[in-house]
Amino acid sequence: MKKILSFLLAAALLSGCVMTGCKKSESSSKKDEKKIAASTDKYRNFYQIFMYSFADSNGDHVGDFNGITEQLDYLNDGDPNGGNDLGIDGLWLTPITPSESYHKYSVEDYYNVDPSFGTLDDFDKMLEECHKRGISVIIDLVLNHISYKNPLFLSACDEVRQGKLDGDAEYFEFHEPSYYTPSTKVIQVGDFVCEANFSETMPEWNLTSQKTRDEFTKIAKFWLDRGVDGFRLDAVKYFENKHTDGVEFLKWFTDTCRGIKSDVYLVGEEWADTADIETLYASGIDSLFAFRFAESSGEIVQSVSTSNGQSLAKKLVNYDKKMTAANPGYINAMFLSNHDQVRIANSLESRGLAAQKFAANVYLLTPGNSFTYYGEELGMRAEKTDDPTDKDRYYRQAMVFDSDNPQDITVNGFKTTQMPTGGGVKQQLEDKNSLLNHYRKLYTAKLQNPSLARGRATEQQSFDDKAVCAFYVEKDGEKLLVIHNFSEKEAKTLEITDEMLKNAEIAISMPTSDDGDKIVLSDGKLTLPAYSSVVLRSAA
Ligand code: CA
Ligand code: CA
Ligand code: CA
């Protein structure tokens, strides 16, 4: 049977040669027809939803769980091989727990949902619908700090005022004022102070206390037993302090979660330099966001600005090697922007739509998981502001499903002021050259080629051209070559030798121009138009 099949395959390939010329493949390749199996492991294309601003189902101007459920046909219709959906298969929800703040990063109750987002029943329904469609859901978990209004903290304050430090005060960083250096941010309670790096409303947990760890175990169990697939851990940067070993704490929490749910997925936020991220990977945590490649000052946008792809390839490979050494099972977590950063369209839009599509190619075609901030797929912009006190709200405006009929969500009192140039979801779905349709193609291509996400960036290939970013990705004997042309105007012709990839064929083809510039591989010559990307694979 096998022999007959390979004979038929050879015949088919041969006739293909006659039809199109030998060793030639074009961007509209037959790979498009490849059936996708939905992911069942931790490798996902995540979509970050800022709860307050994504979708309001009941007209109270606040996003909610039912709003997300109503929009699931947009995010993922449950059919990985068709439909008009975006095609993400993971969701990260910013904090859902009760809080007086609109962003909810100061938690008043770890065991409930904020009533403005709906009920626990609404949350469960949303979760069930997500799982039916193969979307895994992780929620933001804030373990560094708590709300000053949380009953446990209020009880601790009562005790501290009476000079009692061995009761509930042990949950928090209460110390004599002399314990801290003058530069440490603290809040005063009676004769004592509690560390509070973010704000006076966010006192910090004592992460070395057994009491705290017992409480955290209960919290993790509460949500994992409910069905959430993992957590995005907030402010990991601040876990370490004078008496807490941040890596030890992170290892303890990772192990604890795995004890509750063996396939839990954890991704942490540490925005400092790469050396600190490398140190934290020793905890065994699955992922830490790769901050150095994100936002307007990060490596991807800077490489687009300078048309220097060659040095980016080197940095991506070095990063992957370093983190793999620190944690062999690590999953890189690439993103372009998040809720704390100016939207990426602000820095790319002036270079045109192709530059925005190209930046998406670069982060999505890197091994590991990807995180797309809601509206990034539309090119949503943040209004420029000189207001230093509340600039964040400009990065968190309401998702634009229909730019002719925008949602009436007011974030911290302010409505969406910026409509994406290409329109909302409705408008961009109808435009085959839109940024949204480009993202849809990228997710499909990634799902059709699962070894790209799951492999390791092993080596750079320079091509002696500063504009070309090229690196190998290897996974279980399969070898891919990812190539991006960072030149804004010039097409590149690159020679692909058999030493690079035996009988290379195009696995993924991502041009960005509207006028149909094709990516062509013919007789070992690869034509790569400006701002376009290709992934080659060794033919079997
Ligand atoms: Ca609502
Ligand atoms: Ca689909
Ligand atoms: Ca802390």
3D architecture notes:
By secondary structure, the chain is of the alpha/beta class. The chain is built from 15 helices and 22 strands. The chain has helices at residues 2-20, 65-70, 72-75, 120-132, 151-161, 210-226, 246-260, 274-281, 299-306, 310-326, 345-348, 353-364, 425-429, 435-448, 450-454, and strands at 24-25, 45-49, 90-93, 136-141, 174-175, 186-189, 192-195, 230-233, 265-268, 287-288, 333-335, 369-373, 410-411, 414-415, 456-460, 468-475, 478-485, 492-495, 505-510, 520-522, 525-528, 533-537. An eight-stranded parallel beta sheet has the order 10-9-8-4-3-2-12-11, covered by helices on one side. Strands 15-16-17-22-19 form a five-stranded antiparallel beta sheet. A hairpin with a 2-residue loop joins strand 16 (468-475) and strand 17. Helix 6 (210-226) packs parallel to helix 7 (246-260) and helix 12 (353-364) packs parallel to helix 14. The longest helix is centred in the N-terminal third of the chain and has 19 residues, at 2-20. The radius of gyration is 25 Å and the shape is globular. Mean pLDDT is 92; it is low at 1-32. It binds calcium ion (CA) (3 copies). The site of one calcium ion has 7 residues, from loops.
